[in-house]
Amino acid sequence: MKAFALLAPLAAILSISKLALGQLQHDSIDAPDQGPGFHDVHGRGSKPNFIVFLTDDQDQRYNSLDYMPLVNKYIRKEGTEFTNYYTTSAMCCPSRVSLWTGQFAHNTNITDESAPHGGYSKFTEQKLDDNWLPGWLEAAGYSNNYIGKFINGVTQSRKYAPKGFKNTHWEPLVSPGIYTFYDPIFATNDGPIERLTGKYQTDVISDKSIKLLDDLATNKTDPFLLVISPTAPHDEVWFDKGRTIFTPPVPAKRHEHLFKDARVPRSPNFNPDDQDKVSWIQTLPKLTQDEEAQLDEKFRSRLRSLQATDELVERVIQRLEDHGQLDNTYIIYTTDNGYHLGTHRMYAGKQTAYEEDVNIPFLIRGPGVAKGRQNDAVATHTHFAATVLRLAGLPTPDHLDAPSIPVLAQDDRNAASFQSETFAVEFWAGAFMENKTFRSTQNVYKSVRVFGNGNNFFYSVWCTGEHELYDLTKDPYQIHNAYAKTLVKKPYLIDRLDALLNVLRTCKGQTCRDPWSVLHPIEEPNGGNKGGPLKKVRSLKDALNKSYDDYYASLPRFAFKDCRNYYDASNELTVPKSPPQEDL
Ligand SMILES: *[C@@H]1O[C@H](CO)[C@@H](O)[C@H](O)[C@H]1NC(C)=O
Ligand SMILES: *[C@@H]1O[C@H](CO)[C@@H](O)[C@H](O)[C@H]1NC(C)=O
Ligand SMILES: *[C@@H]1O[C@H](CO)[C@@H](O)[C@H](O)[C@H]1NC(C)=O
Ligand SMILES: *[C@@H]1O[C@H](CO)[C@@H](O)[C@H](O)[C@H]1NC(C)=O
Fold first, then answer.
1. 412 and 450: one domain?
2. pLDDT value of residue 522
C-alpha cells in the first residue's frame, strides 16, 4: 500500500489535534472533578485506602468470577460490578502500563511483553514512572505497597522499585519465578532474592499481604495503596534450552479435585465450522477433539488455580476488618487482560480485540459504592488512574486518556464528566497460541469499540488491509463480519467508524476523552432552536445525523502500510477511499 498525501479535511483534523496536543505538553493539573456531594462520601477528613487485586489473564466472558464464592461474598455482593470494562491492549505488559499511567499504549509506546518494544527495561528507559498513579498518590501522602507480578522483565538483576515504591514496600515476583506456581521467586527493595521452592505462590502472597497489613496497622501508616497481584489463572511458564514453554496453571493441592465437570462454554463462536474472519484466523484449521479436551482441562485448571486467590481475598478483607479499616478502604478486583479458549478456532491465549480477550472483570466496593449492583457504563484500564485519584480527592492530570468511572452510587453516569462511549483497542505484537508452536505476524490492528444509544459496534482495520465490523447487538459473539455488506448498504456508518478510529488511534488526553470534539470542533445550536442550549456532537448517534453524511464521506480512511511488530508512526496513515469501495 502506498502513502498518499493527506486530504484536506483530515489535514484539518490533524492540525486541530496537534494544537490540542501542544496545549497538553506541560501536564497541566485540572481542578479535581469531584462531582456533586463528593466531599461527603468519606464522611471524615482522612483519605481512603486502596487495595487492588490484580490477577493475570482472567476471563469475564466464561464467567470465571462465578467460580469464586468469596470474591462474590466480599466484593461483588458488597460492591458494584462494571460489566462493560475493557483493556485497550490485550497483553499483560501494555495493559498493566495503561492501568497505572492512565494512557493508551500508543501514548506509552509499551506495546509488547518484553524488550525492545515492552517490558520493564523499556518502561524504565522511558521514565514512565515519572508520571503515573503511584507517584501522584505518594506525593499526596500515600504509602504504596506492591506484592506479586508487576510487569514482564522484572528480573533478579533488574528488580529495583519504580518511583512511588522506592521508599515503601516493593516485593515483585521476578523471572524466572513469575509463573512457576510451586517455585516462586520474590525480590524486595534492597533485600535478598527469595526463592520458595515447594511453596504455592498465591499462598505466599497471601501470607505476605497479611503481614504487611499488620505492619501498616501497627505503624499507623495511613492512607495506603496495596496492590496484590498473583499470577493465577495465567499459564505456568518455564524456560528450557532457550524455549519458552506454556502449560496449564497449577492449582494448590487442596483445590486439585474441584470442578470435575466444568468445561469451556460451547458458545456459538467456540471452534465454529465456518468463520468470517481476517485471513490469519480464517485459515486456522478446526480444533480436533483432542484439542477441545485439552482446552476443557485447561479451563478446569484455570478455575482451580483461582481458588487460592479467592481465599486470599477473604483473608485480606477479614484482616482489614479486624484492623477497623474496612469502612475506609476501596477494594478493587480486576485483571490485566482476558483470555480465549477455542474461540474462533484459536487455541488459547489473548492478543486479539475480540470480546473474550478484552472484556474483563472489574469489581469495586468501598465508601459510597452501591452494593450488589451491576453497571454497564463503558470503562477501560485507561479510566483506572482517574478513578482512583477522584476517590482519593486528588486532582486529575489533564493528559489522562480517560475520565473517572462513575463508581459511586450518587454518580450520574450520563453527566458530561463521565461520558465514555468509545475507545480504541490496539495491537502490534503478533500472536501465538499458548502451548502450541503456532505464530502469526499479522496480528497487528487498530480497532474501535462504540456503545450506547442502542449502538454496539466493533470496527477493526488490520495491517493486511483487511477490515472487520460486528454489530454486537445482533451478533454478540462476533461471528458475522458485516464489513463488506455494510460498505454497500450503510457506507455512512463505516465513514463514521473509520473517522472515529482515525482520531482515537493517535488521541491524547482530551482528544481521547472526547474524540467527537476533534471531528466536530464547533458547537452547534441544539436542534436549530434559536437561543436553545448549545449541543455538541457527543456520540455516534449525534454524528449519524444525515446532515454530516457528505463531511464523513469526504474523509480519508485509516490504513497500515504493512505489518510491523511495533508502533512505527510512519507505518500508520490515511489513504483516500479507494474507488472500488465506492463502486461496490
Ligand atoms: C515506539 O518505540 C519503538 C522502539 O520500541 C520506536 O522505534 C518507535 O519509534 C516508537 N514509536 C513512537 C510513535 O514513538
Ligand atoms: C513498620 O515499622 C517497622 C519498625 O519501625 C519497620 O521495620 C517496618 O518496615 C514498617 N512497615 C511498614 C509497612 O511501614
Ligand atoms: C499442551 O497441554 C496439554 C495439556 O493441557 C498437553 O497434553 C499437550 O501435550 C501440550 N502440548 C504442547 C505442544 O506442549
Ligand atoms: C441534524 O443536524 C441538523 C443540522 O445541524 C439539525 O438541524 C437537526 O436538528 C439534527 N437532527 C437531530 C436528530 O439531531
1. no
2. 66
Atom of ligand 2 nearest to the CA of 216: 13
169 shares its domain with 138: yes
**Nearest 5°: phi and psi at 492?**
-60, -30
Cis peptide before 176 (omega within 30 of 0): yes
- For residue 298 and ligand 2, the question of a CB distance below 6 A is answered with no
Asked if the structure places residue 139 within a domain, the reply is yes
Question: Tell me, what amino acid is at 128?
Answer: L
Nearest CA to ligand 4 atom 6: 527
- Residues 463-482 pLDDT 10s: 999 999 999 999 999 999 99
Instruction: Report the CATH number that the domain containing residue 379 is assigned in CATH.
Output: 3.40.720.10
User: In this structure, are residues 361 and 338 in contact, taking their beta carbons and an 8 Å threshold?
Assistant: no
Query: Contact at 8 Å (CB) between 172 and 149?
Result: yes
Single pTM value for the model: 0.91
Predicted local confidence at residue 244, as pLDDT? 87
| Pairing label, strands 143-148, 224-229 | parallel
Atom of ligand 4 nearest to the CA of 524: 5
Encoded amino acid at 512, one letter: C
Pair (19, 112) in one structural domain: no
- CB neighbourhood size of 95 (10 A): 26
Q: Tens digits of per-residue pLDDT, 379-413?
A: 999 999 999 999 999 999 999 999 999 999 999 98
